[in-house]
TrEMBL record:
Residues 30-95 form the 4Fe-4S Wbl-type domain. This is 4Fe-4S Wbl-type domain-containing protein. PROSITE patterns: 4FE4S_WBL. Pfam families: Whib (PF02467). It comes from the Bacteria.
Length: 108
């Protein structure tokens, strides 16, 4: 059975610490306060214009999140197929160079 990828917005703090394998104390990521903004509506059809607007706001939220470098590393590792992760859509992730996560850490 394939492993189900869970967006950080839907994880508990305990799950985040275990999944992201960090030794420091974590706070909740900014996406946790409005999960649907980052994951899209559940059980509903989202029109392209609505999705583009939602993803634009989600990217802005990610830009202020202190966990963005950790989220980016996780997204690069699990390769999600949907949602906004560390300010990027899942469709953007495969095209990123390997040093992208380091750039997030430098900007933080």
């Amino acid at each position: 059975m394939p492993h189900r990828i869970t967006h950080p917005a839907l994880m508990s703090l305990t799950d985040l610490e275990a999944t992201w394998r960090v030794d420091t104390d974590l706070s909740l990521p900014e996406c946790a306060y409005d999960p649907e903004l980052h994951t899209g509506p559940r059980m509903a059809i989202e029109h392209a214009d609505d999705r583009a607007a939602r993803e634009s706001v989600a990217r802005q939220v990610c830009a202020t999140c202190p966990l963005r470098p950790t989220c980016a590393a996780y997204a690069m590792r699990v390769r999600p197929t949907s949602g906004v992760w560390a300010g990027m859509s899942a469709a953007d992730l495969p095209d990123l160079p390997d040093d992208t996560v380091g750039a997030f850490a430098d900007a933080a």
